[in-house]
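Re: the pair you flagged

First of the two:
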Amino acid sequence: MSRKSAREIAMKMAYEKFFNTEDTYATVCEISGAEGEPSPEDIDFANGIADGIESNGPEIDALIAAASNGWALERMPMVDLSILRVAVYELMFDKKAPQKVIINEAVRIAGKYGGDDSPRFINGVLGNIARAEAK
């Protein structure tokens, strides 16, 4: 497995929270058909993101709302919001990966799991957050 796969699993874990489930990394891997055996580092990475989203949820959602140019969180597709929460947590709280990598990965995941407009929307929101952080 890789960090790319671990980010996808973290997004799926964030998505599962919408349904009030407490699925673990292993359960989400099994349900989603993820291939390969995750390394302990990948498991820790994805669980850290899921825990970080839970711990910093109101701040993360406020950043997304402020950067989404009039889109209410309630109107956003759950997949897009899950992807954004993972990326915003990494951008603003984890800060271990370069911004460019985090944004590119979020856009890639949006292309795989989101709607037709998801990659562009997510790129725009994350770009707004990154620019605001740079000021």
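Second of the two:
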Amino acid sequence: MRNRFASILTAGVMTAMSLGAVQPIAAPVPGFEELYEAVLVACTPPLGTPPACEAAINAYSAALVAAGIDPAVALQSFTELRAEVRARGGGDVIDALFEELLPDSGAVGGNEASPV
């Protein structure tokens, strides 16, 4: 019985992991989904532009700060958001904008930030 339970549990975990591969990379802070989506739209093709991206990042960031969201939670969301933008074709200019505005969000695409 124990082996059967372990097999079922393992199969469930593996299924969940495989489903996770098709889920979006990033995760908005709960309650801020609309601002998060605005950043994705403003920072990715075909509508994304650097000025729109910067405005959307600043709006999302300001809302998180104003709501008193734990900085670690906000940073995790921005880190995942940055990776999602890159995966959707945000490109080097947009990634450089993330680096300028949110350097702790982790460089992606081999563009590592210098440890200072």
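Residues 26-105 form one domain.

-B.
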